[in-house]
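Reading group handout, session on sequence-to-structure problems. Before we discuss, look at one worked example. The prompt was deliberately terse, the way you'd type it at a terminal:

> structure DDE family transposase

The input record follows.
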Amino acid sequence: MPLIKAIPPVRGRVGRPRKRPDCLYADRGYDHDKYRRLVWRTGIKPVIARRGTPHGSGLGIHRWVVERTIALLHWFRRLRIRWEIRDDIHEAFMTLAAAIICCRHLVR
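And the output record:
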């Protein structure tokens, strides 16, 4: 719940900014009614995979985007293992890596 409360306002259309996303995708590790109720109370629809059901719920499509992004960042050897102690230096390398990845995809 601290992560959900720390979500910044969602940018979008002109007008009052939305304070929360429409839905929350989660892994089977969060399959508990307690988490579902807490997320519903904040006004967010929980989409959490159920334990004991076969794969194919459709959540893999959204999860694939996150795993692909992490894999793209691992192209940069310095980001595989965090060597920097200072947060600002690590964030600068992450930003630089993201800019290089975007540039490579735009050139194609």
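Points for discussion. First: The chain has five helices and two strands. Second: Residues 28 and 49 are 5 Å apart (CA to CA).
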